[in-house]
Design brief:
The protein has helices at residues 36-48, 61-64, 87-94, 98-111, 122-130, 146-153, 168-179, 206-214, 228-235, 262-279, 291-294, 331-334, and strands at residues 9-11, 14-16, 23-27, 53-58, 114-119, 136-138, 159-162, 186-191, 217-222, 240-244, 299-302, 317-320. It is an alpha/beta fold and 354 residues long. Helix 1 runs parallel beside helix 4 and helix 6 packs parallel to helix 7. It is elongated, with a radius of gyration of 29 Å. It starts with 8 loop residues before the first strand and ends in a 20-residue tail after the last helix.
């Protein structure tokens, strides 16, 4: 097991870690549909629904691929969302123009929601540094780009690494690349890089394994539909949840088919917090809120008026609520004994009465 130097990190105004409510990142991706106004509306929506952060993706088509129709640069025909499209065509549609970053970040700051991004090459990091981003996110496909990870980590800000498709060795190499810069503010995200992801392929039991193996904070980049997977991830130790968001799936958009709508994002924020609150501490015993309930456990009570010399029977002494009398299991030891004094119905049975 690798020990981390951090039990929590700070992103913007929020502490992130096991002792804090889950940090919810709303991923805009390409759901702005090429409209800055729509991008700004997504920021407003994410803030209104209680997300802690809004995240962009910072690239240009020419910084992430090249314009080519060759088979290497075309998605498989059977791809559920983007079958047959070239990478250039897809990224041309999905990218967030660099001149939009400043107004998006400015609005997020005004609304009190943290904005940061995934850089896909060094020029993207330069742009994001000029905007004083508080954190960096490494996308799943970029986990093998160790120079990019080192450069982002060298800025001394939290770095969130998504692990879709990655082997244990590839994740370890990425974490080591970040740590080699002296940066220990690392969050590793469990992830299934399919869109949408089948819940049965989530393998969330790997979350505590990853935490122990890499000694980092752990989160979950969720591409399933609904919120069940995210709540499960929190129960298993995820302190960050990232989810693609859209104003409306019906409006279409490059990622809309697997993105959460506003009411779903609100439910994600609320229910992952409930899930985290339910974790509590590793202890067994009465909770503070159960103290009143302890008064109403069962115990032995006199249930008929009795006189001096009457013997204890199953008719005049029974196990009932509340809990002030002898334990129910004591009945065989008191049955047949005589009462020392007249005793009214409703009296808790004690040894001094018999």
């Amino acid at each position: 097991m690798t020990e981390s130097n951090h039990t929590s990190i700070r992103i913007g105004k929020h502490e992130v870690g096991p002792d804090h409510e889950p940090y919810i990142i709303a991923e805009m991706s390409g759901n702005h549909d090429g409209s800055l106004d729509k991008a700004l509306d997504i920021v407003r929506m994410a803030a209104a629904q209680g997300a802690h952060a809004i995240k962009l993706q910072t690239y240009k088509p020419e910084t992430i691929t090249i314009e080519s129709d060759a088979p290497d640069f075309r998605l498989s025909q059977g791809h559920e969302l983007w079958g047959g499209r070239t990478l250039w065509d897809l990224y041309q549609e999905a990218h967030t123009p660099w001149e939009w970053h400043e107004p998006i970040f400015a609005l997020a700051k005004e609304l009190g929601i943290t904005a940061f991004s995934s850089p896909f090459d060094p020029t993207a990091i330069d742009l994001l540094e000029s905007l004083d981003v508080p954190a960096y996110k490494i996308a799943s496909s970029e986990i093998v780009d160790l120079p990019l990870i080192r450069l982002a980590a060298s800025k001394g800000k939290p770095i969130i690494i998504s692990t879709g498709m990655a082997s244990v060795l590839e994740i370890a190499a990425a974490v080591e690349a970040a740590r080699s810069t002296g940066n220990e503010q690392i969050v590793v995200l469990a992830c299934t890089a399919n869109y949408p992801a089948d819940p049965s392929e989530s393998n969330l039991r790997g979350i505590p394994v990853m935490r122990d193996a890499f000694g980092t904070l752990i989160g979950y980049s969720d591409h399933t539909m609904g919120i069940g997977a995210a709540i499960t991830a929190v129960a298993l130790g995820a302190c960050v949840v990232e989810k693609h968001v859209t104003l409306s799936r019906a409006d279409g958009g490059v990622d809309s088919a697997f993105s959460s709508e506003p009411d779903e994002l609100r439910m994600l924020v609320e229910q992952t917090k409930v899930g985290w609150q339910c974790l509590g501490r590793p202890r067994i015993g009465a909770r503070r809120q159960e103290q009143e309930g302890l008064r109403f456990r069962r115990s032995l009570y006199v249930v008929e008026d009795v006189r001096t010399g009457d013997v204890v029977t199953a008719q005049n002494v029974r196990s009932i609520r509340p809990a002030n009398g002898l334990a129910p299991d004591e009945f065989p030891h008191v049955e047949g004994r005589a009462f020392k004094a007249d005793t009214p119905k409703g009296t808790a049975l004690s040894w001094d009465l018999i």
